[in-house]
Amino acid sequence: MAPSPTALSVALLGCGTVGQEVARILMEDAEELAARTGARLDLVGVGVRDTSADRGPHVSRDIVTADLEGLVDRADIVVELMGGLEPAGSLILRALRAGKTVVSANKALIAARLEELSTAATESGVQFSYEAAVAGAIPILRPIRDSLAGDRITSIMGIVNGTTNYILDMMTTHGSGFDDALARAQELGYAEADPTADVGGGDAAAKAAILASLGLHTVFPLEAVHTEGITEVTSRDIEAARASGHVIRFLAIAERVAREGGADAASVRVHPTLVPADHPLAAVRGAFNAVYVTADNAGELMFMGQGAGGAPTASAVMGDLVSAARRVVAGGPGRTEAAARSIEALPFAESRTRYAVAVVVEDRPGVLEQIARVFSAHGQSIESMSQGRAPEGADAAAELRIITHEGAEGDLHATVQDLASLPSVIRKPTFMRVGAK
Amino acid sequence: MAPSPTALSVALLGCGTVGQEVARILMEDAEELAARTGARLDLVGVGVRDTSADRGPHVSRDIVTADLEGLVDRADIVVELMGGLEPAGSLILRALRAGKTVVSANKALIAARLEELSTAATESGVQFSYEAAVAGAIPILRPIRDSLAGDRITSIMGIVNGTTNYILDMMTTHGSGFDDALARAQELGYAEADPTADVGGGDAAAKAAILASLGLHTVFPLEAVHTEGITEVTSRDIEAARASGHVIRFLAIAERVAREGGADAASVRVHPTLVPADHPLAAVRGAFNAVYVTADNAGELMFMGQGAGGAPTASAVMGDLVSAARRVVAGGPGRTEAAARSIEALPFAESRTRYAVAVVVEDRPGVLEQIARVFSAHGQSIESMSQGRAPEGADAAAELRIITHEGAEGDLHATVQDLASLPSVIRKPTFMRVGAK
Questions:
Q1: Which cofactor does it need (chains A, B) (predicted)?
Q2: With a cut of 50, which residues of chain A have pLDDT below it?
Q3: Smallest Cα–Cα separation from B119: which of B335, B270, B315?
Q4: N or C: fewer beta carbons within 10 Å in chain B?
């Protein structure tokens, strides 16, 4: 066996907020990291497109380079923090194929090309890890991949986007409207100037695909994630949720669904969800993230922490880096779990959950029966029904709030469509999904 | 390189509740586990002292043996679930020295002999893992060891004993007395007939030592854990805690403490602690466990789940087993982190926290000033003082409830001693520690 290396050269690709924090930690904690790893971690280069920009006090100008491929070639470990699909994808593949360990925080890339990148790592016998790509500082991917490796995960529900949790929390606790809450999130730097990826659900969908892939031992395609953002959540929805003992949380959900006489399927989706007010996910406030996992043997587990920010994300990157470096020092090949078996995406129409449906109706005898008949005709069984105050501008009306037992999306959509066509129904009914019993 | 094995032989030492669950999972999920691991996991033997006892439906009688050493010798992976110091310790050492992978759930043994066992594993280049020893199903040791490997943990606070959390929760939410709550816990099977290890804190102390060792990168001796149980917590304490906006939780605490002009020290202790009512640890109900970790970069993290029970504990054992088996299949040597640097135990008198002190005094002018002077003489600064109702049988008295700013244990003890000697103080003052700001 070759002697253990006494130093490993580390290349940083990208040097924004997270990259600068990684550089800082590598410098400030060099001695302690070397003791824990068994070898020094030497930052040999920082690859960026614009070499003239200031990279903060922890990156010396003489290691900054625009020659990204050259930098990859002279490193033992490549840390990719550029984001985006290219050139990040090509650079990571180049590194993995050359037998280099790779750490990445690039959720979009990983959600899009997990299988290809994992296969390249396995073929070269190196580690490819990306804990920081989901839920920032929270150790969630490693526990799912390793600690729960001998269990069967049946459901993962995550608050994986801090911006939207902050917005929903502001709407819930301060009665803010969506636009005000978003503006406040932007002021505080939680939300980007263009908040589409957050409030539209794209960011959460990428994380859902990664959680589903690892948790359900498959490669779940990003395109198959059913995605609804929070842009249409109103103060009225929040109030109705409260009235039924719930709060609204924006969840990324990956469920293993048993199908009669067939293999299990995966229901992976991102949408605003009613969560019971006493559920641990309801207690996740502000910009925090949390992931709630249910497994056959472990039962229920929750992981909570900071989902974004330079230092927290850098903590997750550094955990991957030290773990992978230890492996290099020990001399063994890595093993990134290959997708052991594949699990089919459940057609969204077959996805099952409970629903909270709001129907504004004429306030006269017989209407309730009509409404109930529509639910029943589509096999949607009603758990509770209550009457809320009529919305503004609809004086002769009442709002029925119905919570259903578990039913299929397809049936629910058909129910809503039929409700809308009833003469006694004044507005198109709205609904939210109820999760986390 | 030798070809990867297609099957690995697994030996179970001990076959109680957890062992039977591990046997069940190995049998029921054999195919899926093989796909995830890359090799079959064959249960080749179950070692027990009494071979005639029934071991449930998942352990076939012909693999049960009393020849523990012989069983160890013919296994690739040894799963030790016997508990106790011996013969578990000798058997594990025998296995490790012979280059076998070992998984254990034996907190008492690991707290007592972590250094020796880890060294044996490192020397043989094999994995020794024991996730199930702390907080049952909750993945906590692996995240601390690997995911936070590049961060600096400053504090770990854990609810790591479900029995005591159940008792305190019953006292808090139902107003039960300690004895009633304990009796109920015994009825439900949460507490043993002899509850000493739980309510006296011995169980939590072993877990605190393990958390401290991994989290602070040292080997923290069990004897150096300051341990106070919950047997003296009264309904009155619970009520006083509530009055000041707290709940009482039984915490295992491991803190890194900076000392002027010297190396950091470790304060590791187990005691009932006042936790703010809106702190996530206050929301941990019933027999659940949770561990709250603070690190320089990650910030605050919480891990919650089931801390005991056959299936949850077996989940953690299986996670270790599959992870270690993957490593064997990949052909690389393992690396159990050696204690990279040692950190001294902080003398308990130097341990610092806030305190809630209850003093029953004569209800007359000037007493308050006397009391305050004692605190001040010992450098204990007072954060708040309020007057509670007098305890039963002390009519002419008042109870002062004082919460201090952070101060040292030694000073607090001296303060309490001096308070007790004041003529105006009617009973020996009591105190609880206030944590988790």
A1: a metal cation
A2: 1, 334-340
A3: B335
A4: N
Tell me how close the Cα of B8 comes to any Cα of chain A, in angstroms.
Answer: 15
Q: What is the pLDDT of residue A340?
A: 46
Listed residue (A433, A434, A397, A391) closest to A413, CA to CA: A433
Amino acid, single-letter form, for residue A32: E
Strands A246-257 and A299-306: unpaired
Nearest to A305 among B301, B322, B334 (CB): B301
Distance from the B130 Cα atom to the nearest Cα atom in chain A, whole angstroms:
11
Q: Which residue has the tokens 């991994």?
A: B214
Residue A253 tokens read as 């959900």
Low-confidence ranges of chain B (pLDDT < 70): 1-3, 332-342, 394, 436-437
Instruction: Note if A428 is an active site residue.
Output: no
Select from A319, A324, A340 the least CA-distant residue to A99.
Answer: A324
Terminal-to-terminal C-alpha distance of chain B:
54
A137 touches chain B (CB under 8 A): yes
Domains in chain A: ranges and CATH: 7-136+311-330 (3.40.50.720), 141-307 (3.30.360.10), 352-434 (3.30.70.260)
Q: Give the ipTM of the model, two decimals please.
A: 0.87
Q: Do B306 and A299 touch (CB under 8 A)?
A: yes
Residues constituting chain A: 437
pLDDT per residue as tens digits for the range B152-185: 999 999 999 999 999 999 999 999 999 999 999 9
Our measurement of the distance from residue A394's CA atom to the centroid of its chain's CA atoms, rounded to an integer in Å, reads: 39
Q: What distance in Å separates the CA atoms of residue A46 and residue A66, rounded to the nearest whole number?
A: 8
For residue B68, give Cα distances in angstroms to A171, A376, B300. Answer: 62, 62, 44
- Residue A48 to residue A67: CA distance in whole angstroms: 8
Amino acid (one-letter) located at A388: G
Helix and strand totals (H; E) in chain A: 14, 18
